[in-house]
Write a sequence for this structure.
């Protein structure tokens, strides 16, 4: 505590805030150092609608979309499959392709846990990049 002695009627105690400012500066530095070390999520690709119809048809033939549907059902490009067959089927589809990019489309009523499971199986099958398709994106919004 510091004391001010002046023309007033007596000694007046005032808090010494210099140590408080030192502590705050140290905390600011600590938070600035820790902030870049926060964990980072998975990188995702979001497909953008193409204005060219001819190019759209060519991309549809090359694009692989895994749909996670209600009731624990799966589809790969509108072909029914099971959770056990997903990994081997994806490996078979991408066996001859150089660019290993696939997309996951989850139904609105499906838990994210099921979508994450599909992404995990696809990454285990050797897919480099997994993108997410949403209902708004599919509608062109």
């Amino acid at each position: 505590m510091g004391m001010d002695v002046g023309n007033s009627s007596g000694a007046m105690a005032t808090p010494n805030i210099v140590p408080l400012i030192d502590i705050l500066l140290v905390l600011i530095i600590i938070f600035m150092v820790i902030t870049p070390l926060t964990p980072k999520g998975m990188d995702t690709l979001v497909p953008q609608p193409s204005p060219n119809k001819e190019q759209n048809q060519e991309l549809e033939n090359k694009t692989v979309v895994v749909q996670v549907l209600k009731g624990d059902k799966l589809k790969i490009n509108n072909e029914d499959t099971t959770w056990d067959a997903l990994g081997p089927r994806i490996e078979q589809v991408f066996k001859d392709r150089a660019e290993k990019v696939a997309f996951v489309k989850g139904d609105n009523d499906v838990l994210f846990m099921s979508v994450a499971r599909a992404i995990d199986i696809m990454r285990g099958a050797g897919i480099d990049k997994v993108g997410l398709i949403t209902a708004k994106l599919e509608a062109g919004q």
About this structure: The longest helix spans residues 18-34. The mean pLDDT is 79. The radius of gyration is 29 Å.
